[in-house]
């Protein structure tokens, strides 16, 4: 097991390095940050001075080396736009996004787990059909449309919930439903189909034959084996949610990471974008590592297979 | 991607709002159970301020905060006249010397007195702040001389008639003692000015909170603060701003799109349009002999070919006036006798034929993702009727500006330019020496240079007026319209007056119950 964990860690680091190179290069493909930051009527010599001051006039490989050497020391540079430490800005926004991600994930799991399980157990029942229709809608409805509909109904019409901003837990509800509806639908769908597949397997028949109750069959044999695709989907969705649900955050003016990332791209605020992506990538790597461990626990074949190599 | 989402969203938001208001026309705009917040004015901004340090602010949203917390030596009032601010009077002693008599008894929010030392410090800090976006507007100032506690003189290295305009919004007065004790970063975190409101808090991308400065000096055009607290909320999505306005989350918003006006009015809100000094153009490359637009007749033809009034009526809800030159209505040197090009496609065809393009030509127009694409498409559609077939290319703002700076733009590009009635910046794109200019007319250049170097404002007006006539006849692009800023107000807002500087001046506003 420690070897397996070490191997996954190395993979994670490799991913982080790849991310750093790609992010660094991508940001330089779409124009010069100096032209965004300075007004159009700035004389060329002042633009040049600014570029020099920010190190934007150095060759790209040199800029990359500087970037990496600073990043390993936790220094992502100074935000052009916010005029403060880039890491500080990203870390300031992190709690808000974690809060929203937790709320969205809770929302999707609370609905998806029972919905997926019951739909599989009561296959082709009215409940199953209802779940399938809801799942289809949940996956098909665009987030921004859902967000606006929720806002119009619950905030403008009924006045139950705040329109935007963050003033307490009530501000979390609409963004969480917006951000969580897609994952709710995907998790429910995968759990349902996974369970259906497992329930048709011979060992389930054996378990039933040896007299186990339906609940025991479900919890000890079926769910554990059906969970792998669902866990994968939960992990992918968690990664998305941690990156800040851009649409929910922007529409509900919720000051999280997604909102920060969109703004920073608009301002070409390189240090913040790079820091955001690095922090994001790190979190996704951690989530994936956790998922790999969960896989190994769910299915010993995974960890044994990996150890053979 | 976010821009695509944004446009789709705008359309959908419109549909949703119309659907909601249409479905229940009798539903009153009330807020059951919501306590009155008479003492707090909440303003919805479409963008966050760039900084709380006024020297780094360069957009309307940030100016709204700057004008609340800070004052300037000279101000531009609601009628866009230059009026005394922290300077009670000023005089041009000679071409190289300006003298300002300062207002007495004004203190900064921290109690520090405002005096000649504060002016000297503020100007010197601007000149030495290399990354301040507006530093170049003040480089004519060589030194600031303190004559006495309340008199300063600016020593100039060249006559510069645009300084008065720049002083109205680009050079806020800062407290030297406080600044020295907290440093630039500390100042940006907790700014101190002489303005009608004190800084309380800034949560980037969320809100800015200000509190009334009870000791605000008498006589400012802005007026004394009327509410105890002002909160600027950053709400970039138009649908969100509209929903907040309808539910009382904000009292006042800017950038209301023309197609939402009817909806907002139907919801019981007040709509207040205000013409600004921002002008809309389709610029043309006029300095490249290989392009059709090099020929003045082609550029005139393009102006004749566009039915600007119809676009204003149909796409801008009637808000906007057709312009005749870059010296727009209300500008220093505006000449109402220079009439805009009439819509005359026959004349356009004639001019194109004369210029050697009887069948028209193919060309490209660049626009930014932050500007309207529907107006660009309407212009392109009308040009097609005289045979000028336009392909539209969309760029992100940074790339668009970079193309412009590097002279890599397409022969046509859509632009909005200007925010003060002083035409000081048009030389950038309309003279032989303007560094982003794709146009060269020696006569125009001489007039604009002379206007820049003249301290006498009457004289400047006359020079700009002549330049405006020449720029009409030898157009720098297709002249479109004056932009209108449309505000949405809750019916309880009283005393709001739109500023020509695009900033929201909050100090005169009261809230009725």
* Biggest interface and residues each: A-B, 53 and 58 residues
Compute the average pLDDT of chain B: 89
Helix content of chain A: over 70%
> Which residues of chain B form runs of ≥5 with pLDDT under 50?
1-37
What does the radius of gyration of chain B come to? 24 Å
Which word captures the global form of chain B?
globular
- Structural class of chain B comes to alpha+beta
Helix content, binned percent of chain B: 25-40%
Portion in strands of chain B: 15-25%
Our count of helices of chain B gives: 15
Helix/strand/pairing category of chain A: mainly alpha
- Widest β-sheet, arrangement of strands of chain B: 8-9-10-1-11-16-12-15-13-14
| Count of runs of 4 or more consecutive helical residues of chain A | 14
Written description of the protein model:
Chain A has about 300 residues and is an all-alpha fold. Chain A contains 14 helices and no strands. In chain A, helix 1 (about 1-25) runs antiparallel to helix 13, helix 12 (about 255-265) packs antiparallel against helix 13 (about 270-300) and helix 13 (about 270-300) crosses helix 14 (about 300-310). In chain A, about 40% of the residues are buried. Chain B is α+β, with helices and mostly antiparallel strands and about 525 residues long. In chain B, about 30% of the residues lie in helices and about 20% in strands. Chain B has helices at about 1-25, 60-70, 115-130, 165, 175-190, 240-245, 260-265, 295-305, 310-315, 345-355, 375-385, 395-405, 425-430, 440-450, 455-475, and strands spanning about 40-45, 75, 80-85, 85-95, 95-100, 140-150, 150-155, 195-205, 205-210, 230-235, 250-255, 270-285, 360-370, 390-395, 410-415, 475-490, 495, 510. In chain B, the strands form four sheets. A ten-stranded mixed sheet of chain B has the order 8-9-10-1-11-16-12-15-13-14, with helices on both faces. Chain B has a four-stranded antiparallel sheet with strand order 4-5-7-6, covered by helices on one side. In chain B, strands 2-3 form a two-stranded antiparallel sheet. The radius of gyration of chain B is 24 Å and the shape is globular. The model of chain B is unreliable at about 1-35 (pLDDT under 50). Chains A and B meet through helix 2, helix 3, helix 7, helix 11 and helix 12 of A and helix 1, helix 6 and helix 12 of B.
